[in-house]
Every structure is written in structure tokens, then in C-alpha cells.
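User: Can you predict the 3D structure for this chain?
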Amino acid sequence: MDLAIAFLVLCGAAAGVVFWRRRRAAYAAILEAYGPDVHPDTAAALAAAGNNNEVARDGLWLRAHERELSERFRRQWVAVVDGEVLSVSTDAENARKAAHAARPDRVPFVRRLP
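Assistant: Here is the predicted structure, written as C-alpha cells:
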């Protein structure tokens, strides 16, 4: 019986290691794709759900409109939900909080523009 429990604990630990390695790899891929100026909550949402989710679509929208947005909001943090800029701030957390207040049902894509 003790051997069976030890085996189950070992399997659970191995599964946890694999999970966190995959999560770290996904987070690294996000930083590579979107740059280092992505809010940690945005990166975590992307890592958890992959590229086929609402946050990823907002990131693609932001990337497609980056040039025009950078002209208006240079070096500021922009929070996007459903292809709409909900908040802009010089502080990442303020941009995230304002967007979350406007749309509490969604995780905003928050990124600092160049």
C-alpha cells in the first residue's frame, strides 16, 4: 500500500513539473511574440488559454493597429478589449484597473506601446 501511495505522489509531482515547464515555455513565447512590455496578467491569461482566446485576439488587434496607436499614445500602456481601447495610462496597473472596471467580465490585453 505504501508503495502505491509513493508511486501516486511521484506521478503527481512529475505532472506538476511538466505543467510548470509548459507554462514557462508558453510565457516565454508570449514575451517573444509581443515584446517585454506586456502586463503580467495579460501574459498569464495568454499562457493559460493559448493563442485561441479573446485576449490573444485583442493582442493581434493591437499589433495590427500599433502604428496608429503609437502616434497617439507613444510610450503609454494601452488596455484593449474586443478591439477597443478602454484605457491608456503611463502606469500599467492603472491601465489594467481602468479597463477591468469598464469590462469586469474580461481580461484586457495590456501592453506598453513603443
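Residues 2-112 form one domain. The two ends are 60 Å apart (CA to CA).
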